[in-house]
Amino acid sequence: MNQDISLKENIHYGTKEHPISRLHFDTGAGTPYPEYFFVARHWHHYMEILYIEKGSFEFEINLQSFTLSQGDICILNPGDLHQIKGNSSDTKHNVILFDPCILDFSYEDEMQEKCIRPLINQLALLPNIYHCGSSIHAALSPKIKALMDTAAEMDYGWYMTSKLLILDIISSIYTANLMQSVQNAHAQTNQKKIQNYKSVISYMEHNYNQPVTLQDLADTIPCNSQYLCRFFKDIAGVSPIQYLLNYRIQKACILLETTNNPVLDIALDCGFENVSYFIRKFKEIMCCTPKAYRNKHTQR
Question: Which domain of life is it from (predicted)?
Fold first, then answer.
């Protein structure tokens, strides 16, 4: 199982000349996901198109749950808070990631004004889920399959063809009158709660190496500490302080794997003021000492 505790994904996909990436994910023995595919709750500024080739998945998008099966399609808008979990060790899915800014036109025609610019400025959103059997799925499926194949093969001119296919996909959704204004879309979700959650997480990720109190986290919203604990645990399943502790330990794991820094320095760099407390909490969460963890992961 792959649990990346970092919620705000800052990975850059593609290259400057070709900022589109196509990814393929298998599960099972010999893959990075031997038990089942799992990506923990996160968000990013890219647009993401997913096509389910095999098996079924549980998607959580902006705190709403969906089940997707073979042939189904998911489109994630920039900023959508999402988590994906496969339902077995025998699943396959393909992903296209791109910055919507690549679709921008300098000429202010109808498409730019009513479709592309609102998407780029996050004033309009695409629906997330497209199940097999719907008319819009029938229109999108061959175009998305063509996009996946084109971006995978990367033949001469693949990038231009991929951009045209993405525009065609968005055009199909737009002409079907399925694009939503942000106001209408957010009215159907608890967007304020999601934004508060993102604010608290972002504060943790920027300040985990410094002293952080419960009141510091509450002040980011702002709210009182009791409300913060209730709403945060309702989403994350753990208290904000426990989440911060888990995040610090994950950061310590990275330093243990990638540096030769002393355990004391790593503890301080990850926001622990007491090395004994760090070692105790590390052992509770990782089931081994920091030294044992380093030895195990540097002998691979």
Answer: Bacteria
Strand ranges, E, within 16-80: 20-26, 38-42, 47-54, 56-61, 64-69, 73-76
Domain at 191-298: CATH code: 1.10.10.60
Domain ranges across the chain = 20-187, 191-298
Cα–Cα distance for residue pair 237/233, rounded to 1 Å:
5
Strands (E), the chain: 20-26, 38-42, 47-54, 56-61, 64-69, 73-76, 82-86, 92-98, 124-125, 129-130, 180-181
Superfamily of domain 20-187: Regulatory protein AraC (2.60.120.280)
How far apart are the C-alpha atoms of 125 and 187, rounded to whole Å? 13
